[in-house]
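Q: What structure does this chain adopt?
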Amino acid sequence: MKFDDDFLARVGLTDLPADQKEAFLRDTKEELESRVGNKMSQGLSEAQIEEFEGIMANDQQVIRKVVSELGMDFRTDPIYQNLLASYGVKEGTWEIIGEYLSIKWVQKNCPNYAEIVQETAKALEAEIKQNSAAILAA
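A:
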């Protein structure tokens, strides 16, 4: 989901003052990420949650552990190669490797991630639309 002027139009907030739009869109994106994270964590073990948090925090110890458990050379994976290309580099940093591992982790541990994001985004959009008058009045 893109958080932009089209989103604001869909939820009835095109009249939001210009100086508030960027902050509102940023806050909405953060809220979606939080809600998705909460739903993803349901059913996961504490160890899985800690591992994912370590990956997201670019904890080099966790990253090394997860890389060693992959059982493959991640550098040949098309997902990794696409990340390198998107950053315009030939070798990955800890952050790029962490981003790659977060994708692989989600694929393995939360295969319904896309569905969770879509459902959560729809619910959040409906919630904002329902409260658009109150948001504009505030």
